[in-house]
Amino acid sequence: MNLYALLARHFPKDPQAPCLILPDNRVWTYDDVERASGRIANLIVALGLKPGDRVAAQVEKSAAALVLYLAALRAGMVFLPLNPAYQRHELEYFLSDAQPGLFVCRPQARTLADELQILQRSPHEP
Q1: Three-class SS state of 29
Q2: Distance from the first to the final alpha carbon of the chain
Q3: 74-108 burial string, b = 16+ CB within 10 Å, else e?
Q4: SS3 state at 103
Q5: Which pTM value belongs to this model?
Q6: pLDDT at position 118
Q7: How far apart, in whole angstroms, are the C-alpha atoms of residue 111 and residue 44?
Q8: Ramachandran region of residue 12, left (φ > 0), alpha (ψ -120 to 50) or beta?
Q9: Cβ neighbour number for residue 57 with a 10 Å cutoff
Q10: Residues 16-57 pLDDT 10s
Q11: Which of 43, 55, 65, 122 could form a disulfide bond with 72, CB atoms 3.0-4.6 angstroms apart?
């Protein structure tokens, strides 16, 4: 049993019960969280990651970040949260050390993520 399964065992019996109440008063039910994390977990697996692989995420704290965390757990991955304030040299260190199979970042960090990915490839990779 992975951590997600352990957490899910303690979800309320009513899947329509509120799980998250956001600052704008939108409500995510346990069913919403279950469905969203399932879709993302399936995507992670479809990308070729295997249980035990790392998913690094440099994103702001949000409902979406929580769902990503749960999805990674659900797929059997190791979740590596990275502070959004980390700069290039810090990201380079963490990504080279952890070797994540997936790095999730904010859209404005995409160029840097692409550059760091190129630096992480072995000389034999395209």
Answers
A1: strand
A2: 37
A3: bbbbebbebeeeeeeeebbebbeeeebbbbbbeee
A4: strand
A5: 0.85
A6: 56
A7: 21
A8: beta
A9: 19
A10: 999 999 999 999 999 999 999 999 999 999 999 999 999 999
A11: 55
